């Protein structure tokens, strides 16, 4: 636990306190309105306990355990994606290499091997998977199969692995901006704070946009952002959600990470907008596949991809933003 700065430990405790309050409120609401069905809400809160519990245990345990946990999330996401998209019988052997890419990509993240981390899936797997496919000799549906498989790897493994790479980030001496260390431990272990910031702000951005859309989206700025993709998304939800996310990032960034106030505000803008785009992108994919959720792994939430849809876009953008500023 010595690798965790005090601000990270405090944030973990605050998360559990917030979950405890949510559980109590859920019970009170059920008692006040016993005629209404709150089973989905209770399932959501219970699942959040599981998610936060597992993530916190691995983060407290060690950075390697956290990387392994995130790699397992990628594996489940890839499995979900491939179970929902049509694959050819001839590609069964190719899928083995797609799954094999998960531990290799996360090994590069854990070892901070940036050169291989950044080219392994976009370049090497991009070349190898279609090569292995033409070696099988099945040409019918080749384009769709190759495109689907590579996109699956990009969003479920490559994108999410950027969150794991944050654990290896350590400010360089000649960085563009000086690091604003919030504590002494963060001078040797800045990654956990950055990872916690990314995940916390991304998930709360989803909640903020939902709450603003439900409150003001019915009276002000009611116009839909993408009515054919996600009819429930209004401009009120987008603008209110991003503004609240930026305010949260501005407050949380200097206290939890190496970012100063200007960089924290920029990070909030990036996460707010990218999270919204990632959510809509996965919504478009679900509409194309004619499904409501990617799975039922997380009761009350759907599948793994339903929970990390925003993170798929925010993780790579945030890592490269931090890498540009402090790498």
Automatic annotation (TrEMBL):
**Pathway the protein contributes to:** Phospholipid metabolism; CDP-diacylglycerol biosynthesis; CDP-diacylglycerol from sn-glycerol 3-phosphate: step 3/3
Q: Which gene specifies this protein's sequence?
A: cdsA_1
Location in the cell = Membrane
Keyword annotations for this protein, in alphabetical order, are: Membrane, Nucleotidyltransferase, Transferase, Transmembrane, Transmembrane helix
How is this protein annotated for GO cellular component?
plasma membrane
Residues annotated as transmembrane:
12-29, 49-76, 96-129, 149-169, 190-212, 232-253, 265-285
**Gene Ontology biological process terms, A to Z:** CDP-diacylglycerol biosynthetic process; peptidoglycan-based cell wall biogenesis
> What molecular function does GO assign, one term?
phosphatidate cytidylyltransferase activity
Which organism encodes this protein? Answer: Rubripirellula lacrimiformis
Q: Mind telling me what this protein is named? A: Phosphatidate cytidylyltransferase
Is this entry keyworded Nucleotidyltransferase?
A: yes
Enzyme class, top EC level, equals: transferase
Query: What does the record give as EC number?
Result: 2.7.7.41
The record describes its membrane topology as:
Multi-pass membrane protein
The similarity comment for this entry is: Belongs to the CDS family.
Which chemical reaction does it catalyze?
a 1,2-diacyl-sn-glycero-3-phosphate + CTP + H(+) = a CDP-1,2-diacyl-sn-glycerol + diphosphate
């Amino acid at each position: 636990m010595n690798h965790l700065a005090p601000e990270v430990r405090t944030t973990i405790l605050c998360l559990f306190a917030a979950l405890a309050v949510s559980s109590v409120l859920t019970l009170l609401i059920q008692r006040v309105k016993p005629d209404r069905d709150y089973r989905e809400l209770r399932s959501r809160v219970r699942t959040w306990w599981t998610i936060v519990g597992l993530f916190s245990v691995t983060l407290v345990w060690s950075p390697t355990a956290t990387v392994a946990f995130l790699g397992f999330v990628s594996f489940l996401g890839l499995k979900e994606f491939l179970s929902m998209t049509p694959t050819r019988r001839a590609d069964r052997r190719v899928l083995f290499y797609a799954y094999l890419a998960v531990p290799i990509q996360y090994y590069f993240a854990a070892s901070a091997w940036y050169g291989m981390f950044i080219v392994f899936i976009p370049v090497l797997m991009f070349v190898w998977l279609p090569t292995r496919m033409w070696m099988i000799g099945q040409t019918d549906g080749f384009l769709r199969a190759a495109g689907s498989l590579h996109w699956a790897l990009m969003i479920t493994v490559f994108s999410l692995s950027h969150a794991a790479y944050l654990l290896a980030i350590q400010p360089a001496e000649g960085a563009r901006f000086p690091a604003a260390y919030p504590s002494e431990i963060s001078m040797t272990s800045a990654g956990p704070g950055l990872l916690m910031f990314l995940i916390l702000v991304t998930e709360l951005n989803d909640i903020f946009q939902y709450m603003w859309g439900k409150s003001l989206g019915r009276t002000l700025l009611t116009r839909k952002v993408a009515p054919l993709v996600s009819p429930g998304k209004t401009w009120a939800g987008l603008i209110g959600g991003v503004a609240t996310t930026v305010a949260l990032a501005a407050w949380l960034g200097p206290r939890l990470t190496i970012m100063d106030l200007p960089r924290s505000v920029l990070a909030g803008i990036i996460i707010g907008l990218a999270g919204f785009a990632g959510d809509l992108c996965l919504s478009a994919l679900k509409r194309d596949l004619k499904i409501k959720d990617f799975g039922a792994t997380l009761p009350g939430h759907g599948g793994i991809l339903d929970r990390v849809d925003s993170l798929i876009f925010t993780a790579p953008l945030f890592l490269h933003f931090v890498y540009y500023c402090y790498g």
